[in-house]
Design brief:
The chain has helices at residues 3-13, 17-41, 69-78. The chain is mostly helical and 81 residues long.
Length: 81
């Protein structure tokens, strides 16, 4: 065991049992973040373009209106002035 991990264990031993559940939840969250970072860092092939990388999240009902969306938003914003 490394010195850092040994320090962590020593600190955990000083925490009352009824408060240790909070530390356990924090460690679980950190492990999820660590594993997510490790998985996302391994990319088989980087995308050649940013176009379409979020298509799986697109609302299919709005795709047909996408081309005119910017112009429509600007018209709505400045229609009151």
């Amino acid at each position: 065991m490394t010195r850092v991990k040994q320090q962590v264990v020593e600190m955990l031993q000083d925490i009352p049992d009824d408060k240790a559940i909070y530390i356990l939840e924090i460690i679980k969250g950190l492990m999820l973040l660590y594993n997510a970072d490790k998985e996302s860092a391994i990319m088989e092939e980087p995308p050649s373009s940013a176009m379409g990388i979020f298509k799986e999240y697109a609302n299919s009902d709005l795709i047909s209106r996408e081309k005119d969306a910017w112009g429509e938003a600007v018209r709505e914003k400045y229609a009151h002035t």
